[in-house]
Amino acid sequence: MMQTSMTTWKEREKKLNSERGHKAIGKNVQVAVIPDNTLNIVVDLDKEFGVSTSGKSVIVATTGGGKRFSDEFPDYRINVTIYKV
User: Fold this and answer.
1) Are 71 and 32 in contact (CB under 8 A)?
2) So where are the chain's domains?
3) I want to staple 32 with a disulfide (CB 3.0 to 4.6 A). Which of 11, 18, 22, 81 is the partner?
4) What is the distance between the alpha carbons of residues 83 and 2, in angstroms, rounded to a whole number?
5) What confidence score (pLDDT) does residue 46 get?
6) How far, in Å, are 9, 32, 40, 73, 85 from residue 36 at the CA level?
7) What pTM did the predictor assign?
8) 58-62 and 23-26: which strand pairing?
9) What secondary structure does DSSP assign to 48-79, as a single string?
10) What is the largest CA-CA distance in the chain?
11) Quick one: pLDDT at residue 21?
């Protein structure tokens, strides 16, 4: 039987993130601070998470508000929403 639950997706995503050195900080948003103190953001543009509250767009990725992304930069936050119109 093929498992298609969200848990399976999350487990695959977590494994990929750790292999790449990225940390998941929302739905379909992964980040990593690379050695030159540059923030690298990864979003899979093929994923969708349903229609927005207004019904005018489709959510592709979101952090769900401002999120901390690194212990090295505790005063920094990131807030990302990517959508298709």
Assistant:
1) no
2) 6-84
3) 22
4) 29
5) 94
6) 31, 11, 11, 13, 35
7) 0.73
8) unpaired
9) ---B-TTSSSEEEEE-SS-B---TT-TT--B-
10) 46
11) 80
